[in-house]
């Protein structure tokens, strides 16, 4: 129960912080990226635990609810923070530092999930999760650039 | 992601449906900017994905999609099938300038259409229920279609706002 309360509180705080702060990207870009992130995160977790059985997930309803918060709120919103912050970074060095920092944060959140036994690794190593996050950030960034080009053609910068 | 066990009636139904529905989208006169169309279509795909992920995953396992309970390649094709419906839904809403009490009726009619379409999907073996009932889908469609409409109005408002602020000298 303690885990569920912490996860709900963290998700709510993240949600409130995300909607109340001024963002560098516009609403259309943020909506696009959130939807893409949810699609990818629910997709790869399903492939990992249903198809490939590299993870097992908790059957306990409370822990299962935490997994849903993790997939639908925690990871997508943390990634959105990253994409908004990366626009502020002027130099490549600062972008690389931010990417490493965000990958670390995403990794820590996943470690907490494994500590709470929401996710249990089977034939899986933590570094593979880090690779997954890096690939996720790169793919979503590429899709964002593509969406930005469509917006620019329509006269929205 | 796995390939279909047998390429039979459910795969053919989805494939034909996807081709025909996207053809309809391309043939209809353009009514919205591409970015708005993309967002509405993506919203429909993600709604379907999230709801299936919650209700068809092994923990609840209320139904299977296509041949197996696994995440199949054709699940992705099926998700893309939802997008043209969402487009047509907002297209007609905008074209007929639906307002007030008619909005509720519009959502109700589309939810009934969705129920009918789901039955066709069940007939072709796209959805295999075990624990789920067709009647449960109705409130889900009511909620999803209301939210899709709200999302469309929200992004259209912001699109117009962004466009007007950037067009100013």
UniProtKB/TrEMBL annotation, chain A:
Query: Looking at the record's lineage, which domain of life comes first?
Result: Bacteria
TM segment ranges: 31-51, 63-84, 96-118, 130-147
**Would you tell me the protein name for this molecule?**
Uncharacterized protein
Per UniProt, the keywords (alphabetical) are: Membrane, Transmembrane, Transmembrane helix
TrEMBL record, chain B:
Specify the domain of life of the species encoding this protein: Bacteria
Mind telling me what this protein is named? Answer: Uncharacterized protein
Q: Where are the transmembrane segments?
A: 12-29, 36-56, 76-93, 105-124, 136-155
Keyword terms, alphabetized: Membrane, Transmembrane, Transmembrane helix
Q: Which organism is it from?
A: Salinibacillus aidingensis
